[in-house]
Fold Acetylxylan esterase.
Amino acid sequence: MPLYDLPVDQLRTYRPDVAEPEDFDEFWAGTLDDARRHPLGLQVLPVASGLRTVEVFDVTFAGFGGHPIKAWYTRPAGVAGDLPVVVQYQAYGGGRGLAHERTLWANAGYAYLFMEPRGQGSTWGNGGQTPDPVGNGPARPGSMTRGILDPREHYYRRLFTDGVRAVEAARALPGVDGSRVIVTGISQGGGVTLAVAGLVPDLVGVMADVPFLCHIRRGAEISPQDPYLEVAGYLAVQRNHVEQAFRTLSYIDAVNFARRANAPALVSVGLMDQICPPSTVYAAVNHYGSRSGGPRPDVDVVEYPFNDHEGGDAHQQARQLAWVAERFGA
């Protein structure tokens, strides 16, 4: 697990020219407009989780295409009034798991919505329940190459839209103060977090841990592991698709969303991370807020010099608890 990427002093100033399509804003505005033509269809059902200090609810809402997306809503038991809410997105391959698993933010005194990624949930963890009913052309196993030749068909167009709709669902939940929302996630969840930060203009905060999907072309060129290796493996076979594939991926590159974010952010990076190379994370960090239309928002970066993709783990959670309390005024 060596230090294989740029020297740390270069990482901290690494601000590459990441490809961005000219119609990026129009593409995403149209995508969200299409999604919002479907009623949110929010369903909130209490769950007998066996927990005494938190209440858990099974949530369903309409995501991309009106497709039903599952989530857990957790909040402190017996607490009246509207609470600020943390919305979290899952890492690659995981599902929402079981009702009793997601308790940290509710135990900290906040409302908490944990969204399941469509079509995932059977790689690790305790399972998922949200299908992805959309098909795609020839692809390598995994999600990165699903729809890779057309941004309208790409998997992450659907997942990022689901992520925005999850914020809208969280704001509509009973017992939630919709004016105070923080989004968070690890790895894939961190990439979704940055995408949502660029698409939702009134968040209180953004927490992205070892985020995936940043500077995707560099990730595909230097990462020795999946999921970026899915792209490299696909292009090793589909040799004539290189430029078309990376044009599609530029529509879902988290750097391009990070440019548009305007909420303060807390980002972690593992300097020995072989899944999400540190230079890709710093590409998003150093572009963050550059096209927000106002002063550049604060970005706190926490480096873990000898850590791989586990990043800060519980140490980072401790930082997040303090950071969230400050943002929510708790």
Q: What stands out?
A: The two ends are 39 Å apart (CA to CA). The chain has eleven helices and nine strands. The longest helix spans residues 155-172. The chain has one domain: 8-328.
